[in-house]
C-alpha cells in the first residue's frame, strides 16, 4: 500500500507501507506529480528536496528507475580463505607506494571534507546509539567515522579495507577517538566477501565506498548476510549528478582518470538505486544532498537501510 503524507510546509512525504518493507521519501511540490507517476510500478524512489539536519537547504534529486545488472555471487558464505581468494581476485596487490600515497591522501581529504559532512554524520550515527554494539565498517579507509562510534556504549568496531596501508591510519583515528585497542579490529578484505559469520553484526556502516567496490550488488548481499535481523546499514555515498547537467558532463569526462588516481573510485554510479533495490526487508530511508566541498564528487545519498 502506498500512503501520501502531507506536511504543513511545502514538503510532502511518501511512505510505502507494508509489514515487511518500508521506503520513505520527501520531495518538493514541483516534483510531486513526477514522483506520483514514478511510484506507479517502481519502488525506486528517494528524497528529492529536504532540509539538512543542521538546517542547511539542499538540492535533492528526483525519482529514478534503475536497470540493475545481475552480478555473479562470489561466495554464498564467506570463509576466511574464500575472502582472501576474492580479495586477490578483485583487488590484485598494487605497488606499495601507490597504496601508501592514497592512504596519506585520504587522511588529508578527511580533514578537508569532514567539516561540511559532520552535521549529516552526527545525525546518521545517532541511529546506532542503544541499538548496536558490534559495528562493521566497510572501506574504513583512514577512519573518519570512528569518532562517531565513541558515543555508543560497549561498542566494538571492525573495519574492512583491501588497502593494508589504511590500517595504521584507521588505528590512529581509533586511538584518537578514545576506543580501546581491543575494541578495534582491522580486517584486510573486500566488502564483496567479508570473513564474518551470517547475522554476526548489529550494524554495517559505509561512507564513500560504493564508488570503489567492484560489485555493488554483491557488496549489498554481503551486508544483508552479516547483519543480524533488525540490524541497520548506514550509508553516505557520492553518486552521479543528474543526467544532462553540466556536473554530470564533467563527471563523465573525469571518470576514467578518477578511477586511476583515486584507487578505483567511479563518479557516475547510481548507488542510491542499488540500495533501494537490494531488498532490505525493513525498508530504506534515503536522502540526497549537494555538498560544495566535494566538487565533482557530488551529490550524495545518505540514510539507513533496515534488515
Ligand atoms: C574514498 S575511500 C573512503 C574511505 C572512508 N570510508 C571515508 O569515508 O573517508 C574508499 C575506501 O574504500 C576502500 N575500498 C576499495 N574497494 C573496496 C572494496 N571492494 N571493499 C571494501 N573497501 C574497498 C578503499 O581502500 C578506500 O579505503
Automatic annotation (TrEMBL):
Domain of life of the source: Eukaryota
Protein name, as recorded: Methyltransferase type 11 domain-containing protein
InterPro entries with a match to the protein in the record: Methyltransf_11, SAM-dependent_MTases_sf, Thiol_S-MT
A Pfam family of this chain: Methyltransf_11
Entry-linked Gene3D superfamilies: Vaccinia Virus protein VP39 (3.40.50.150)
Provenance organism: Microthlaspi erraticum
GO molecular function, one term: S-adenosylmethionine-dependent methyltransferase activity
Domain Methyltransferase type: 136-235
Coiled coil: none
